[in-house]
């Protein structure tokens, strides 16, 4: 299952946001590389935020590399899982910061997947009205997507990522070696966000993913390095043009309108975020075909690739009595909705995405078709 972790040279992707620009470091064994953690804001305390699964695997490595830089290296370990992306978990971070008399220079380090990263970023945005933070993503999903771009949030029972802030990290350090301990299901979930970048921006990358799916799933380091790098380049380019999602950035949500309904409707954590995105992309592709943007061959191509990544393509029934109504009511809560109109990211099958509404009738047809196959 695991590759022999072949070392690759450090690669860097820059995200250009004026005085909030930063670099995304990609390589192997970066958790032990002092240079990746030098030049950050000076502080007397580093607070590592992690969770109960990741701490035993990587906390000591990170502590060792931070100790020469920060006089005090503390940590707080949160309960693991999407179901814990809550106010209560967020409060645990503030409790740790305040009970240890941390000041406004304290640097937070998010060590974990997207859940830890999103919560740490939100805590950093709010603690003493803003302290610096660094993303150290340890899942594929977090390395290719959530650690980059400054979206931070917690969930509300009525909607995913509903409470949060735009707040950029000082740096992102992606150590590919951490992916060797990732459960296979989580690796597949990350591949959903990798696949996403093809239809919205780069069909040559989609060709590459198709050709390299076996290497990616067997954790070939070179293949993973390319996937992380190209994904980060595309995301950095989009975020550099539209940091606060006034328009273009919404394309990064391809598949996510359906996905967020699946996650909220099933209960957070029942489906992994990446699983919901995989299925949601197939649903969005079907909707793209129904409104005349994409053709059926593209829908089949994407469905096959999502399946090859080990992801679900059959949508769950959220309500046995009126399933479409349940999906539609959950999707109306999506942040892209405008005056009650659901807005979908649709694609043409040639690398271009648009954000637009669609008739409820067509959406209901897609939901029915997707719950069957
Ligand atoms: P996750 O953070 O729940 O991590 C997945 C699982 O893997 C967890 O059990 C975690 O403890 C474990 N894990 C993490 N690293 C590991 C490692 N190296 N070895 C073994 N186990 C490890 O899930 P995720 O898929 O990383 O992130 C999903 C979250 O990211 C969702 O909440 C989603 O909303 C968010 N997200 C945010 C953005 C953004 O732009 N901010 C983008 C996409 C997704
Ligand atoms: N993952 C979507 C975004 O960062 O905008």
Description:
The protein is α/β, with parallel strands linked by helices and 373 residues long. It is 44% helix and 17% strand. The protein has 2 domains: 11-181, Rossmann fold; 184-371, Dehydroquinate synthase-like - alpha domain (Dehydroquinate synthase-like, alpha domain). The chain has 12 helices and 11 strands. The protein has a 7-stranded mixed sheet, sandwiched between helices. It has a two-stranded antiparallel sheet with strand order 7-8. Strands 10-11 form a two-stranded antiparallel ribbon. Strand 7 (151-156) and strand 8 (159-166) form a beta hairpin. Helix 4 (140-146) packs parallel to helix 5 and helix 5 (184-201) crosses helix 7 (221-241). The longest helix is centred in the middle third of the chain and has 21 residues, at 221-241. It is globular and about 60 Å long. The site of nicotinamide-adenine-dinucleotide has 30 residues, from helix 3, helix 4, helix 5 and helix 9. Residues 51, 53-54, 57, 80-82, 85, 112-116, 118, 138-139, 141-142, 145-146, 149, 151, 161, 178, 181-182, 186, 189, 273-274 line the site of nicotinamide-adenine-dinucleotide.
């Amino acid at each position: 299952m695991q590759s022999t972790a072949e070392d690759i040279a450090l690669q860097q992707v820059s995200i250009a946001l004026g005085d909030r620009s930063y670099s995304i470091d990609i390589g192997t064994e970066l958790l032990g590389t002092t240079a990746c953690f030098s030049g950050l804001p000076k502080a007397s305390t580093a607070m590592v935020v992690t969770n109960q699964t990741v701490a035993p695997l990587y906390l000591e490595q990170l502590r060792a590399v931070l100790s020469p830089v920060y006089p005090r290296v503390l940590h707080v370990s949160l309960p693991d899982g999407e179901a814990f992306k809550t106010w209560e978990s967020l409060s645990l971070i503030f409790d740790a910061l305040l009970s240890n008399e941390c000041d406004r220079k304290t640097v937070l380090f998010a060590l974990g997947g997207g859940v830890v990263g999103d919560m740490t970023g939100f805590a950093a945005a709010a603690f003493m009205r803003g302290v610096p933070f660094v993303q150290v993503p340890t899942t594929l999903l977090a390395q290719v997507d959530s650690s980059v771009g400054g979206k931070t949030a917690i969930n509300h029972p009525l909607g995913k990522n509903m409470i949060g802030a735009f707040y950029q990290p000082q740096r992102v350090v992606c150590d590919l070696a951490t992916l060797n301990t990732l459960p296979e299901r989580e690796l597949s979930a990350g591949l959903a966000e990798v696949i996403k970048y093809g239809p919205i921006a780069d069909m040559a990358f989609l060709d590459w993913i198709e050709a390299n799916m076996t290497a990616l799933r067997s954790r070939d380091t070179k293949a993973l390095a390319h996937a992380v790098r190209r994904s980060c380049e595309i995301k950095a380019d989009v975020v550099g043009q539209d940091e606060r999602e006034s328009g273009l950035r919404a394309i990064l949500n391809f598949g996510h309108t359906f996905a967020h309904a699946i996650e909220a409707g099933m209960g957070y954590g029942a489906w992994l975020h990446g699983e919901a995105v995989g299925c949601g992309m197939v649903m969005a592709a079907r909707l793209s075909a129904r409104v005349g943007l994409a053709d059926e061959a593209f829908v089949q191509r994407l469905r096959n690739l999502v399946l090859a990544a080990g992801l679900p393509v059959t949508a769950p029934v959220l309500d046995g009595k009126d399933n479409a109504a349940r999906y539609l009511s959950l999707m109306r809560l999506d942040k892209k909705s405008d005056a009650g109109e659901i807005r979908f990211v649709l694609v043409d099958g040639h690398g271009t995405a648009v954000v637009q509404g669609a008739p409820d009738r067509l959406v209901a047809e897609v939901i029915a078709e997707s719950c069957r196959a």
